[in-house]
Amino acid sequence: MGQRIHFVVDPQGWCCMGLIIFIWLYNTIFIPKVILFPHYEEGNISVVAVLCYYFCSLFCIASLFRASVADPGKLPENPKIPITEREYWELCNKCNMMRPKRSHHCSRCGHCVRRMDHHCPWINNCVGEDNHWLFLQLCFYTQILSSYTLILDFCHYYYFLPLKKENWDVFVFRHELALLRISAFMGLIILGGISRLFYTQLMGIFTDTTSIEKMSNCCEDISRPRKPWQQTFSEVFGTRWKILWFIPFRRRQPLRVPYHFANHV
């Protein structure tokens, strides 16, 4: 479960994801070229700072690609319903298929997704039971990378010693100020948007409520925790080992919990 490749044919999603990849490439290429490598060569920063930036960049792009191609929890055409859980299944009025409660039909993808949170155009995929953990990692590492980039932009002008050697014949140094201003602008926009989204996602896990459930029950009390936060996070990430919650390269093994919950809608 959760290991199948899922590819959504959506030009709008491709454009959104292409923009995210462009921003990632821009900062991954120009920040080391303009800031990290020159200051490392002159002894202003250590190799640890360079490696940390590349590790954050690697984890960010890995979680992006995995979240975009991972199966979010698409239901098969003829699902096998356990006899003991039949009362917790329902009929979808859009695709006329049986689905476990807390599943929802994605009109953009054209199928039902188990415990669907929302459809995200920035990863061109639904966020559901099987890839929610990757989406959370993407939000987390994007915040880390954006914050790191903004700190480097600030330190380059206001903290680090001026560079002694600069090759002004190279494009990146002749347009250094413009490149770093663009980097800082993109970093601020991404950090602001992702921080709000990440906070919303965390609150949803703490309360064991998806974004769709929040919108459909806006007048009900959905802020009361139904489960311990360790349990809800373990179910999302598929493991109780907290250190593994931060690793995007592993294979998720979902915890054996029933489809129904105390707060199903």
TrEMBL record:
It comes from the Eukaryota. Residues 89-216 form the Palmitoyltransferase DHHC domain. GO terms for molecular function: protein-cysteine S-palmitoyltransferase activity. It is found in: Membrane. The chain crosses the membrane at residues 12-31, 43-65, 138-159, 179-199. Its main location: membrane. It holds the Pfam family DHHC. InterPro entries: Palmitoyltrfase_DHHC, PFA4/ZDH16/20/ERF2-like. Keywords: Acyltransferase, Membrane, Transferase, Transmembrane, Transmembrane helix. It is a multi-pass membrane protein. It is an enzyme of class 2 (transferase). GO terms for biological process: protein targeting to membrane. It catalyses: L-cysteinyl-[protein] + hexadecanoyl-CoA = S-hexadecanoyl-L-cysteinyl-[protein] + CoA. GO terms for cellular component: endoplasmic reticulum; Golgi apparatus; membrane. Its EC number is 2.3.1.225. Belongs to the DHHC palmitoyltransferase family. The DHHC domain is required for palmitoyltransferase activity. This is Palmitoyltransferase. It comes from Melanocharis versteri. The gene is Zdhhc21.
